[in-house]
Amino acid sequence: MSVLSEIMSYNQKFVEGRKYEEFRTTKYPDKGIVILTCMDTRLVELLHRAMNLRNGDAKIIRNAGAMVTHPFGSIMRSILVAVYELQAREVFVIGHHDCGMTSLNSESVIEKAKKNGVSEDRIDTLRHAGVELDKWLTGFESVEDSVRQTVENIEKHPMFPVGIPVHGLVIHPETGELDLIVEGATIEGNAGLKE
């Protein structure tokens, strides 16, 4: 049985047994927060429990490394939508120790792509189109520095509102312990958004 078949079979039982009822909530985060974190499998449930989050408490955005690297990419757009349209009033950037992005290098990714059927012509086409593959497919040396940089990228975005704090943390993927890297500041009088 394929993973898809297993999921579809389980889903049918999940719906028929009305197990979804315990997860009902609204589209607005109850705690008024949006979290950008890593897609690491160790964080799927650990992060929620370590932060005492329940279904509906937060908007969660995940990507490799919990990074905002492009000011007009989908990650930054999601953060702006969470703030302006979904009532998030604080942003948390949460990286983690032992992140796969600390060892990622573009040469390794490109070689694996070639071994899996991506031709040199396609790679050259990307380079000629202005994609800096060496930069795009490279990770970071320090998760703490990456979190600081992402916090700064969010705060300095031209559409990000004044007064919304952006916090930076690093979680230990084994214990759930959180290290505070950046405590975001709220500018008095500007903490609320105008409708």
Present the secondary structure layout.
Layout lengths: L2 H14 L16 E6 L4 H8 L7 E6 L10 H11 L5 E7 L9 H10 L4 H9 L4 H4 L6 H13 L10 E6 L6 E5 L13
Parallel strand pairs: 1-2, 1-3, 3-4
Antiparallel strand pairs: 4-5
Q: Your description of this structure?
A:
It catalyses: hydrogencarbonate + H(+) = CO2 + H2O. Keywords: Metal-binding, Zinc. Its cofactor is Zn(2+). It comes from Aneurinibacillus migulanus. Belongs to the beta-class carbonic anhydrase family. The chain has a 5-stranded mixed β-sheet with strand order 2-1-3-4-5, sandwiched between helices. The chain starts with a helix and ends in a 13-residue tail after the last strand. Helix content is 35%, strand content 15%. β4 (166-171) and β5 (178-182) form a beta hairpin. The longest helix has 14 residues, at 3-16. It folds into 2 domains: 26-102 and 141-184, Beta-carbonic Anhydrase, Chain A (3-Layer(aba) Sandwich); 105-138, no CATH class. The protein is of the alpha/beta class and 195 residues long. 23% of the residues are buried. The mean pLDDT is 94.
